[in-house]
């Protein structure tokens, strides 16, 4: 389960690096899913898709300290430290990330994503 969820999480980061995040998250997020960002903003799926279509890409990322909390066969939480790097002088963004996944029709779907900035 952890490897499957980590694969989904990496696919999300990859989409943020190649500017396809709006399409990726439009597909993987449940209709009523939300993202809670480090600045306290809560975004529903449509808002996420719109925001990502206008966001600059990330250059690269790192995922470390991964933990998977299995709730049952179709629900789990992936918690990790994520670091994202953009081009330019701004510092890297490092945070603790939590992604709650629900398996529907054999596919992992994102129900909730939350980030807390570190440092």
Automatic annotation (TrEMBL):
Q: Which Gene3D superfamilies match?
A: 3.10.450.50
- Cite the InterPro entries for this sequence: DUF4440 (IPR027843), NTF2-like_dom_sf (IPR032710)
Chain ranges of the DUF4440 domain: 5-110
Q: Quote any Pfam family the record assigns.
A: DUF4440
Protein name, as recorded? DUF4440 domain-containing protein
- From which source organism is this entry? Mycolicibacterium diernhoferi
């Amino acid at each position: 389960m952890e490897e499957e969820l980590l694969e989904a999480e990496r696919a999300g980061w990859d989409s943020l690096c190649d500017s396809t995040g709006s399409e990726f998250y439009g597909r993987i997020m449940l209709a009523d899913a939300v993202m809670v960002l480090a600045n306290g903003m809560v975004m529903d799926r449509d808002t996420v898709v719109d925001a990502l279509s206008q966001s600059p890409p990330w250059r690269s990322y790192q995922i470390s300290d991964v933990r998977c909390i299995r709730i049952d066969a179709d629900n789990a939480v992936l918690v990790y430290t994520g670091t994202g790097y953009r081009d330019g002088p701004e510092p890297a963004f490092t945070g603790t990330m939590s992604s709650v996944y629900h398996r529907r029709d054999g596919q992992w779907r994102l129900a909730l994503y939350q980030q807390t900035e570190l440092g």
